[in-house]
Structure to design on (229 residues):
């Protein structure tokens, strides 16, 4: 069974600082990988996805992630944090090639200090 | 195009009762997946319906069931509610085509509280 591990349930950065949220997955085949963001009292919004194309994936709101098969990692980064980035972020892997059975990591709550 | 809608947004029930949640997918989407989000267990896949048939199922007890109608709207039902069923229930819709990636679009969720 696939699993996803997000290192750090809470991450705090200053506004303007680099954001780095870590995600490691376990899978026997190259999966589809996703990062979602969840704002309070809302559903999940897709930030970006890796579907076996370029290993460096650019998403919305200035986020990007790099797929590293050798490290089984898919870390999320943003060069400069903004107050509006404060939210919970989830890394997920698809359990099938249709992308409709997602296994999620535990989530990382990002706090941005002024 | 309207997004995924879920009703009701908030629900309070007592132990032993049953509850039905509704999800209307994006127009044209035929797949609806349901997820449970709790502080302890995180986000977990419940099941997926496609063309009125359950196509995939997660590891949840039989108290959790669902169905899909011909217009692709889906309902999930939880019988004999337990305190641990308190959660945010999210549904996601996609085109559902097999063998190819289909982006899932999530609704805002229904927050169920069991007292």
């Amino acid at each position: 069974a696939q699993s996803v591990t997000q290192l750090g349930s809470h991450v705090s950065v200053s506004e303007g600082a680099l954001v780095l949220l870590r995600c490691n997955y376990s899978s026997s085949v190259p999966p589809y990988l996703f990062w979602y963001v969840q704002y309070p009292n809302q559903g999940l919004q897709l930030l970006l996805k890796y579907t076996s194309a370029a290993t460096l994936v650019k998403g919305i709101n200035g986020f990007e992630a790099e797929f590293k098969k050798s490290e089984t990692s898919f870390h999320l980064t943003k060069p400069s944090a903004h107050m509006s980035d404060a939210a919970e972020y989830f890394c997920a892997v698809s359990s099938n090639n249709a992308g409709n059975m997602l296994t999620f990591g535990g989530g990382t709550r990002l706090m941005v200090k002024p | 195009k309207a997004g995924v809608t879920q009703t009701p947004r908030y629900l309070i029930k007592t132990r032993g009762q049953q509850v039905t949640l509704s999800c209307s997918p994006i127009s044209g989407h035929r797949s609806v997946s349901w997820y449970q989000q709790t502080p302890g267990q995180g986000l977990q896949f419940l099941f997926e319906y496609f063309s009125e048939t359950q196509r995939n199922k997660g590891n949840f007890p039989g108290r959790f069931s669902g169905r899909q109608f011909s217009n692709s709207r889906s309902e999930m039902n939880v019988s004999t509610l337990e305190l641990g069923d308190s959660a945010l229930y999210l549904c996601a819709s996609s085109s559902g085509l097999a063998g190819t990636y289909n982006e899932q679009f999530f609704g805002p969720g229904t927050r169920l509280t069991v007292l």
The mean pLDDT of chain A is 91.
